[in-house]
Amino acid sequence: MSSNLQQQPRPQSPAGDGPLQRRRLRLPRTTALVAVALAATLSWSTVGPAASAPAPSPAPKDASAAAVTFEDGFDGPAGSAVDGSKWLIETGDNVNNHERQWYTGGSDNAALDGQGNLVITARKENPGNYQCWYGRCEYTSARLNTSGRFTQQYGHAEARMKLPRGQGMWPAFWMLGQDIGQVGWPESGEIDVMENVGFEPGTVHGTLHGPGYSGADSIGGSYTLPNGEKFADGFHTFAVDWSPGSITWSVDGNVYQTRTPADLGGREWVFDKPFFLILNLAVGGYWPGDPDGSTTFPQELVVDYVRVSTADQR
Known about the structure:
By secondary structure, the chain is mainly beta. The protein has helices spanning 32-37, 180-183, and strands spanning 21-22, 25-26, 50-52, 57-58, 68-72, 88-90, 101-103, 110-112, 118-122, 131-132, 135-136, 139-141, 143-145, 155-162, 169-177, 190-195, 203-209, 219-224, 236-243, 246-251, 254-259, 275-283, 299-309. It has 2 helices and 23 strands.
């Protein structure tokens, strides 16, 4: 996103057992367990020029030195919930990002499809009479994370996914510093591996947030598919390669940006510590805007797998 968008400053997340937050988000008002560990915010902007698909260079892979430290291929019977030993499901709404959905628990909005995929579904519904920051919630969706189950410092993290489509959709695959409960956001650091907003169906964003460079002042770039292709039309692999003092983003093996402390103008680099993973599908918010008459429901974020390894595979 360009920095001239009119956007709200991202809140710091509370420590301890206050409401959960995610980039631009006040998360679960209801899930104390989630609240203990998280409290972050999803980014709604990136700073830096967009990179179009023809330009990026391929990212050569050297998997020989890689050791897989986390992997979920989402195998299991259709309708099953995610593996609770790997994922924590968050519940609640998000006033700070002005998202419109209620994140539900169990398998209501995040379930295996029986074909090796996780499907996070956004619906226009309110079966539980959920109350959001703006009144009676209009939508449901899901958000899950690995806090307390898996963290890693450095390596290669990737997810193969097919994104939803439509105005107001906001899927993301991202990471937060595990110390967020102690230091708050953005001091915890945030690495957005992939964000997409519905009004840019062929573009994804990769972003860093930290002290002095968060929200509209975040550091990042974007990648656009060639020939008018859309990320909702098929699966794509979104990845970061992370080493001391360097993070590189790629889509389908095509590198589109690398960030180092030199990009921060003297501000603190907070990415040399363990982070945990987050997957979610938000509906509405400051960045994507709300759904409108052109938006159809349900919408799905389909995740083939999530994998993390120790080696920087650039």
